Amino acid sequence: SVLALEAAERLRSRMELDLEHSLSKLSAAADDIAYEPDRAQSILSRFFKNNLHFHNIALVGKNGKELILIDRLNGIVLDGAGDYSQNPLFYIAQQQVHHIGNVQMSTDHRPFTTTAIPIVQDNELKFILIADLYIDNLIPPDHIARFSASSYVVDRNGWIILASDRARPAAYPNVLNRQ
Length: 179
Description:
Largest sheet: 7 strands, antiparallel
Helix content: 25-40%
Shape: elongated
C-alpha cells in the first residue's frame, strides 16, 4: 500500500541521514589526525567512545600495515598485526578517494559496512582510516516493527540488513534464496 511505501521511504531517509552524519563525524576525526598526527590515538579513542555505531577503527599506514586498532572487544591495540594492503578499500583510499563498501553480514549476523577515508596533509597521503559501522545500530528495532509484526529491510541481493525480529536473519539471512 501507499502508506507502507511512505513509511519505508521515511525509514530509508532516516538511515541515510544517520549514516551520512556518522561518516561526517569520522571524516572530521580524520581531518584532526591530518593536523595533529601525534595525537591520533587520543583522537580515535575519543571518537570511538562517543560514536557507538562503529564496531572498529584502524589507522593504517601508506604500506597497508595497521598502526592503531580500536575495537569494541579488545579496546586499543597499538602496532596491530593487521595488514590491509590486499583490501580493495585500501587501494581506493590510496587514490585519495573516500569510499563506503557494500553491506556485509558479520559472524554474529549483524549488517555492517566498511569505509575508508584517506588522511592527506599537504596533498600527500599520510594514513588511511578504515572503520566498520554496524548498520543495525543506526535505526532502533522499534522503527522497523512499526510496519508489521515481521518487517525486513533488504539489500538488492536479498540479504536482510534490518529486521523487526532479530532472530530471523540468523535463521534465514537471505529472503531471495531462503539461505
